[in-house]
Amino acid sequence: MANKNKSYLKFDHDAYAKTRAPDDFWGQVRRTVHGVPVSDDQIKMIVDAIQSALVMKPDDTLLDIACGNGALAHLFFDACAEYLGVDLSEHLISVARKNFEALPRYQFKQQGAVEYVCLERQPERFTKVLCYGSFQYFPAADAARVLRILFDKFCNVQIVFIGNLPDKDRAADFYKTNQPSAVELADCYSQIGIWRTKSEFARLAGEAGWKVTFSFMPNEFYASYYRYDAMLSR
User: Fold this and answer.
1) CA dihedral (13, 75, 63, 146) positive or negative
2) Does 104 sit behind a cis peptide bond, omega within 30 degrees of 0 on the bond before it?
3) In terms of residue numbers, what domain contains 75?
4) pLDDT tens digits, one per residue of 130-176
């Protein structure tokens, strides 16, 4: 049953990241269960899923939108020729630059997703795009605009992998008896961001020109019971 209490906590990713230790990389980006960073086995499942979907090649240039602090991103550096990670959070990008940046091939930039895709002067250099665990925190209009600009402007991108999306059809499996209101489920500033059914996401991507294939993490993955991944292709 939906929670009739309309009041719920908003989430500030930058402020939260600052409360974690400088070397608590997974904690800073909430790759946690009950506040405890997930195991290396869980991270390996994420890496394997991304690499399988993107089919990374040594000559690929990877764009990572809303990349966070680079803890996940740097695990792909050996698989591609060049990498650019962009994120709105000044703090998370400072962590990424300090701990993971390897100029000139692997770099990080502090910028919002919409602003970045609009202003990028060499979009044709990118061949693959990743957005993991963050797309649901984009305002709905921004999400649509990013997908459209990626399709129209980033002409050499053949695959976009958007991972760890919360499935509205399975929200009850996550929240159990304390189901949030429809307003909270549709709020990008809520704790989990915007929950979408697969059909809702497919419509969003399709309106931008993309074809969509959905996949799911193994049952052993800590969030498999309420999340899905989406691979976009032309």
Assistant:
1) negative
2) yes
3) 13-233
4) 999 999 999 999 999 999 999 999 999 999 999 999 999 999 999 99
